[in-house]
Amino acid sequence: MVPVTKPKGWVVLVLRLLALAATASATIVMGLNKETKTFVVATVGTTPIKATFSAKFQHTPAFVFFVIANGLVSFHNLVMISVNLFGKKLDYKGLRLAMIAIFDLLNTVLVSAGVNGAVYMAELGKYGNSHARWNKICDRFKTFCDHGGGAIIASFIGLALMIVISIISIVKLAKSKSNTPLLGEP
Amino acid sequence: MVPVTKPKGWVVLVLRLLALAATASATIVMGLNKETKTFVVATVGTTPIKATFSAKFQHTPAFVFFVIANGLVSFHNLVMISVNLFGKKLDYKGLRLAMIAIFDLLNTVLVSAGVNGAVYMAELGKYGNSHARWNKICDRFKTFCDHGGGAIIASFIGLALMIVISIISIVKLAKSKSNTPLLGEP
Fold first, then answer.
1. Model ipTM?
2. Residues 110-139, chain B, touching A (beta carbon < 8 A)
3. Which of A93, B64, B80, B102 has the smallest set of CB atoms within 10 Å of its CB?
4. Can you give the pTM of this predicted structure?
5. Residues B59, A170: C-beta atoms closer than 8 Å
6. CB-CB under 8 Å, A135 with B133
7. What is the tens place of the pLDDT at every residue in B32-56?
8. Domain ranges of chain A
């Protein structure tokens, strides 16, 4: 199925599709993450007083940035896949490979920032921090935490794939020196 | 002072020195960040009961990773500066520029992860999060927060410099195709 002469071109395309799937699902799962629960906060006589609380991703700045960062990286991979499939004629003074490597670099840095900001907040929500007297909240908002954790794992997979893609982009640029199409760039 | 034929070689060296200064000071300031304070926690009769609390960077996993990430990136820039100054003969099948670009990429991703994990924790310490009932602690541990904030600003400067250095490394690799020493790589 994979042509022998152009192995790496297909590899990168598949890696980009996987990275797109990972960051896009991270964006969607975190972006829809909301849990509403009703707790008994007091009892007057025998009447329980209830209050409804919501856990939303918008309440935590790190999660908002997580959604933005993963969304932008998804968009980047979508554009790169489109260019790879439909825009093979686009090139300006041989800058194409260098531009791809630079855009990959910037997006890898972005997803790294997004996921690491979120993961330490998630850790705090799960375990709390006794020194700062910040209590864990995952015992009360389990679904919220499960969804957030899933989004973070997906984003870490996206980060790992983006690092591999960025390294391949740099290697491709280096190989293009000798004009051998070893890495399958058309 | 700067030779006309090799302008960018010196630029990168200066950028690396600045990045090294930024990430090294971030590492040291955060690594030494500790504040101990004594508070009155109760009063028995007229005798105040005091307790001593410490705010240390080790109490927050994000700050520990911040110190490790900035330390590693400082080490990377130190090695790169040394190689640039003393190791000009080191090359293996022309892989030197590609390896530099890849190492720069990995370290930029690392410092991005470190600083963004820490900045959202710092934001939480400064403003708290009323939704999760996490109270701010910077009103009580002002020096700790000031030092942490300084370290984070230094690390953001280091991140910006590392992004510029990584882009230059990729451009250098692209330019080396035509064998013109435009970017001053010896």
1. 0.83
2. 110, 112-117, 119-121, 123-125, 129, 131-135, 137
3. A93
4. 0.84
5. no
6. yes
7. 888 888 878 788 888 888 888 888 8
8. 7-179
